Amino acid sequence: MARAESPRGEIVLRERHDPAAGPNAPVVLELRVNGVFVMDTVETSSEKGLATAALKQVEEPRAVVIGGLGLGFTMHEVLADKRVERLVVVEIEDALVQWMREGTVPHGPAYLADERVTVMTADIRIAMAEATPASYDLVLLDVDNGPGFLVYDDNEAIYQREFLQQARSCLRPGGALVIWSAAESPALQAEMQEVFGNAVAVPYDVTLQSRDEHYWIYLSRNQA
Question: Is residue 164 part of a domain?
Fold first, then answer.
């Protein structure tokens, strides 16, 4: 459906048809970066689950930041919570933002129409470094398939101490950092424990093409 090049490589939005699903089955959209599968529109429960798990951590999640736009499902789930007054989505790939805005991703314009949402084209590391301290109640990260399955090699730093400390500094007291991962990562949990003094790994079961899979959501609270 669409293809773009960036300094980091190739971003592709594909249509996928499942003959077994019948002629009236909806077309599946699939996002790939440098040939790596990122997500599709078939299994979106874990993206939504990331939002749901995060929103449960904070009594008043008025200001939220999401690292990674994807196809917008985490963003949409956050905006469904009326307690949220401001949502900033940080996405490094401008082409993906444009595909959402222009309707190349059909649900994109409707998802972005909410006046509470601002999309920032930037590296999440820079956005966190430049953010006003204690300005968010929630920070959600879904920029890779987890620390073990990076979309870009440079993203390795996102799961390490320096960035986690930046994320904590952006959180108000009682705020939370929530990170999605396709696989269990004891190393990430240990880093979050070191920075926040607490870290919980929550397994999340999904079914992908008749296969049972286990994703993970990592949670830390800013108890300062």
Answer: yes
Looking at residue 66, what DSSP letter applies? E
pTM: 0.91
> Would 134 be classed as within a structural domain?
yes
pLDDT band at 22 (very low <50, low <70, confident <90, very high): low
> From the CB of residue 174, how many other CB atoms can be counted at a distance below 10 Å?
14
Which residue range is the domain that position 201 belongs to? 43-221
pLDDT at 162: 95
Average pLDDT of the segment spanning 77-95: 97
Residue 24 in domain:
no
